């Protein structure tokens, strides 16, 4: 009896989150289901085009950066659209149509972030397969290692960006959130540059060689080790982000 009651309690706890998740996906498809189909077909179609150009003698050097940049840009904005849609015309009132609490709404939104990240990884993988079929075999083999790295790195960067953006979007309008995100990125770049300059000035040549050797070792880690490190970083970032979003949204006056 206790087991049955616990199972029912678990189902009742999950069901509102699923409802919030479905509502957010309805928001993403508010302009028509064809719009989502365009997102899903766009990258493989471009991969096919680039592959054909490569086969006819075109350069394949820019294929991975272009596809990766387009993918990260398009898919990073999809979760953002749920916030924009929710804020336009006071449509956040729709949250009250389904029996969910604010915590369920935040959980559903982070499920959207994860599902879009999964779609991004699938898109990149499909694009890689399309290019493998259409591009020149020799050129593809030379570029495959770099493209495989993009498949692993781009979703990680996407999740880190969303981890910063989500609490900001719960706290402030989109324009301010994007400015803060840009400021954070610039600050991190500046801190990294300053750290490198300070280390080169303070550390001796031998000590600097040790630091560079450690960084080189980290860069040469196996794919499995890098994936594990990336997964830990994303889990920590998403956990902190979720806690911040939940606290901000519960305290926010709607």
TrEMBL record:
Pfam families on file: ABC2_membrane_5 (PF13346)
Superkingdom to which the source organism belongs: Bacteria
Entry's transmembrane regions: 36-54, 66-84, 110-135, 147-170, 177-196, 226-249
Keywords, ordered alphabetically: Membrane, Transmembrane, Transmembrane helix
Keyword Membrane: yes
Protein name: ABC-2 family transporter protein
Source organism of the structure: Bifidobacterium lemurum
């Amino acid at each position: 009896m206790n087991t049955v009651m616990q199972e029912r309690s678990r189902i009742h706890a999950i069901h509102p989150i699923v409802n919030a998740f479905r509502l957010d996906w309805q928001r993403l498809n508010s302009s028509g289901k064809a719009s989502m189909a365009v997102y899903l077909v766009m990258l493989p179609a471009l991969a096919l085009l680039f592959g054909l150009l490569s086969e006819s003698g075109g350069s394949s050097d820019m294929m991975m950066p272009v596809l990766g940049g387009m993918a990260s840009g398009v898919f990073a904005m999809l979760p953002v659209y749920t916030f924009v849609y929710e804020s336009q015309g006071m449509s956040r009132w729709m949250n009250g149509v389904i029996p969910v609490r604010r915590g369920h709404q935040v959980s559903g939104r982070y499920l959207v972030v994860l599902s879009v990240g999964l779609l991004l990884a699938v898109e990149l993988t499909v694009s890689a397969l399309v290019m493998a079929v259409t591009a020149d075999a020799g050129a593809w083999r030379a570029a495959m290692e770099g493209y495989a790295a993009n498949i692993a790195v781009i979703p990680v960067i996407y999740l880190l960006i969303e981890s910063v953006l989500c609490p900001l979007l719960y706290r402030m309008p989109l324009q301010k959130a994007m400015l803060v995100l840009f400021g954070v990125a610039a600050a991190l770049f500046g801190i990294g540059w300053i750290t490198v300059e300070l280390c080169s000035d303070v550390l001796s040549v031998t000590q600097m060689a040790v630091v560079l050797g450690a960084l080189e070792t980290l860069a040469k880690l196996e794919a499995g080790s890098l994936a594990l490190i990336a997964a830990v970083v994303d889990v920590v970032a998403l956990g902190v982000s979720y806690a911040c979003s939940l606290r901000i949204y519960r305290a926010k006056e709607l």
